[in-house]
Amino acid sequence: MGDALGNIIPLASVVVSEPSKAVFVKDRVPLIAGLSALAVENIFYSLSVWPSLLLSGTTTLLLDLSSLPKALRYATIGALATTW
User: Fold this and answer.
1) How many CB atoms sit inside 10 A of residue 43's CB?
2) Region of poorest pLDDT, from 1-15, 17-31, 56-70
3) pTM
4) Residue by residue, what is the 3-state secondary structure of 24-84?
5) Which of 12, 15, 24, 52 is the most buried (most CB within 10 A)?
6) Nearest Cα to 6, choosing from 76, 64, 16?
């Protein structure tokens, strides 16, 4: 239901959908525990997604090496090597 609220109100998704998940289960789980679980879930989600975004972004940037300045080229190769 929280995701559905986020789809109905797209600009306020973070403010509406995430906290509403904890509110919907507060009769089974204390509200603070539910909010803490959501925070941990969002941290793990962010940590699992950013390497793939960084990898795809740097790979796309490297496809056009000839137009990149030398410093940006080295920084991009370093970021790509770090994520692998």
Assistant:
1) 10
2) 1-15
3) 0.56
4) HCCCCCCHHHHHHHHHHHHHHHHHHHHHHHHHHHHHHHHCCHHHCCHHHHHHHHHHHHHHC
5) 24
6) 16
Q: Is-contact 41 63, C-beta < 8 A?
A: no
Question: Which has the closest alpha carbon to 35: 48, 11, 43?
Answer: 43
Number of Cβ within 10 Å of residue 67's Cβ equals 7
Structure tokens of 31? 């509200």
**What distance in Å separates the CA atoms of residue 79 and residue 62, rounded to the nearest whole number?**
11
Residue pair 53/80 in contact (Cβ under 8 Å)? The answer is no
